[in-house]
Amino acid sequence: MYHKIWQAHEIADLGDGFSLLHVDRHLLHDGSGPVLARLHASGRRVAQPALCFATLDHVVSTAAGRPATSENRSRTIASLREGVAAAGIRLFDVGRSGNGIVHVIGPELGVSVPGAIVVCADSHTCTHGGVGAMGFGIGSTEAEHVLATQTIVQAKLKTMRIRFVGAAGAGISAKDLILAAVGRLGAGGGSGYAVEYVGEAVRALDVEARLTLCNLSIELGAKVGMVAPDATTFAYLEGRPFAPKGELWAQALAAWRQLPSDSDAVFDAEIAVDVASLQPQITWGTSPAQVIDIDGTVPSLAAASAAQQASFREAMDYMGVAPEQSLLGLKVDWVFIGSCTNSRISDLRIVASIVKGRKVAGHVSAWIVPGSETVKRQAEAEGLDRIFIDSGFAWREPGCSLCLAANGEAVPPGARAVSTSNRNFVGRQGPGARTHLASPAVAAASAIRGAISDFRQMGD
């Protein structure tokens, strides 16, 4: 599938493995203002403003009323607003329909579609592979090039197929599948590859779960992650605001049905991950690859390789855990449900099913941050917000929030958090914050119990 999309977009073979590709969708966020400013200062214009879509997500406050959190962040927001207005680019501003985290709104609005090349100056652009697009993150110089030409120079990646073998058990989510894959392959296991996810467990996922699956592709080092489009994808996209309509929809379907890899397709690497007995996953360290079954134990240093021992010891020291320690029952201070990984309506419905009629532990600060205005409004229409508020969660405005703490919202130093986001790097959620990555179900159960918990043991 990767080669098919590449071939369809190749304008010129530049030699030495590089090609000039047409870009179908360029997504911008609040960090894109300086790029637009440089372009304008150079006297160049945006080549195809209709193919660019901008939102505010990274630095905006998710508190009620969206208070300004710093002068610098206010300038960043103003810079994007001024840049897109000058260029004629559509902006989904805060509080308005369509606004939200850039990797949530792309598929949600039908901007990201099968077979499209989708780029954004954000490494989790691989998320859009969940609808069968080729999405990848780009640097600011590349973003400027795309704005000026609607093209990009890229070197072709090798291809990897990860097959999830077997049917996942009840409650095992896409987050568990991909964390297990990252744990097995390592943080650099997919480096240099475009990954295609296949298998019974993948076909059984709805599109929102496939977006979660592809979201963490970058955490195993892969620039691109994709799931072949199928009837589930088409049903999800039909009627979305920017999806093709009428005769164009029929033409699109005909083209999209040709995208899946041929039965005799050859990949540069083939990986199998057995999911039949997979347990809920949770990270113990400071990399998404440092992950264990929720009822497992932190690795023994004696069993680690010489190369791993130093990094394991540093991670354990930072996280305040010990070798061979069980994480179940470990007291948590914060729970964050949100981010471009797990902030969609399906995620919130899972959380609501667990927390309804229960109370968040008194010592826990628990936030739910919807991924978009659409998710927020849908959740409120379904009454999920009341369930969350009655349980003791803070119900916030859409945005990236605690995923990376770029908006000033942060987990306090030394506090332990269970997070549905995608990175648990040192300081990611705030200086000194200790982050355990997990699924929405594990995060919800941990908020109620006040300690890392298995949602399957919550009882009625």
Separation, N- and C-terminal Cα atoms: 44 Å
CATH architecture of the largest domain: 2-Layer Sandwich
Briefly note the CATH topology name of the largest domain: Aconitase, domain 3
Mean pLDDT: 97
Shape: globular
Topology at a glance:
Layout: H1 2-9, E1 10-15, E2 18-22, E3 25-28, H2 33-41, E4 52-55, H3 71-87, E5 90-92, H4 102-108, E6 117-120, E7 134-137, H5 140-149, E8 151-155, E9 158-165, H6 174-185, E10 193-198, H7 200-203, H8 207-215, E11 224-226, H9 231-237, H10 247-256, E12 269-274, E13 281-283, E14 291-293, H11 306-319, E15 334-337, H12 345-355, E16 365-368, H13 373-381, H14 384-391, E17 394-395, E18 416-419, E19 434-437, H15 440-449
Parallel strand pairs: 3-4, 3-6, 4-5, 6-7, 9-10, 9-12, 10-11, 15-16, 15-18, 16-17, 18-19
Antiparallel strand pairs: 1-2, 2-8, 13-14
Domain Aconitase/3-isopropylmalate dehydratase large subunit alpha/beta/alpha: 4-450
Function: Catalyzes the isomerization between 2-isopropylmalate and 3-isopropylmalate, via the formation of 2-isopropylmaleate.
Catalytic activity: (2R,3S)-3-isopropylmalate = (2S)-2-isopropylmalate
Outline:
With 460 residues, the protein is an alpha/beta fold. The chain contains 15 helices and 19 strands. GO terms for molecular function: 3-isopropylmalate dehydratase activity; 4 iron, 4 sulfur cluster binding; metal ion binding.
What do these coordinates show?
The protein is an alpha/beta fold. The chain folds into 2 domains: 1-257, Aconitase, domain 3, CATH 3.30.499.10; 282-454, Aconitase, domain 3 (2-Layer Sandwich), CATH 3.30.499.10. It is built from 15 helices and 19 strands. The chain has helices at 2-9, 33-41, 71-87, 102-108, 140-149, 174-185, 200-203, 207-215, 231-237, 247-256, 306-319, 345-355, 373-381, 384-391, 440-449, and strands at 10-15, 18-22, 25-28, 52-55, 90-92, 117-120, 134-137, 151-155, 158-165, 193-198, 224-226, 269-274, 281-283, 291-293, 334-337, 365-368, 394-395, 416-419, 434-437. The strands form 5 sheets. A 5-stranded parallel β-sheet has the order 5-4-3-6-7, with helices on one face. Strands 17-16-15-18-19 form a 5-stranded parallel β-sheet, with helices on one face. Helix 12 links the parallel strand 15 (334-337) and strand 16 (365-368). The longest helix is centred in the first third of the chain and has 17 residues, at 71-87. The model has no long low-confidence stretch (mean pLDDT 97).
